[in-house]
């Protein structure tokens, strides 16, 4: 298990699909005992896709000064605004070898910052969808893998419907399943939470 107690950032924004991040946040904050810190572009109320309201702890700009960050979780959603401070933060964390976990449409942020260049990834997005919606497409589609979750070094990407597997992969990153006390495999625990 990873014993270092540090911060796990959660990027939140208007229109995010918060169901994609809640279980990942639960396993990170509660099970792995990391300090969950929500960050947003501005210190204002965030309204998720179903209308749940969130208040970020800090701004993305403030998070650039944190020294004890272990990684970041990025949910999908209908917002694709990439401000310079998020671009800088993602590159900084990647350069430091911290995990970057993005689900559904979230991997677009990783693609647009270049951190998934030459790495395997997955996403719910498609070339066609991005073209139809006039979205900036920086994905290297030749590296796309049609799997629920793909982990390449410190990068964890997932399709939106795979939010349980996404959380399991974050646990695996923390070596949760290597601990004999866990007494369960990643696949077995995923099946428990899927009700199988």
Describe the structure.
The chain is α/β, with parallel strands linked by helices and 196 residues long. It has a single domain, classed as 3-Layer(aba) Sandwich (Rossmann fold), CATH 3.40.50.880. Helix content is 32%, strand content 18%. It is built from seven helices and nine strands, in the order βαββββαβαβααββαα. The protein has helices at residues 19-31, 60-63, 84-95, 107-113, 127-132, 163-173, 186-194, and strands at 7-11, 35-40, 46-47, 53-54, 58-59, 69-74, 99-103, 149-152, 155-158. Strands 5-2-1-6-7-9-8 form a seven-stranded mixed β-sheet, with helices on both faces. Strands 3-4 form a two-stranded antiparallel sheet. The protein is globular. The relative contact order is 0.16.
Notable traits:
about 30% helix, seven-stranded mixed sheet, alpha/beta, two-stranded antiparallel ribbon, about 200 residues, single chain, Rossmann fold, 9 strands, globular
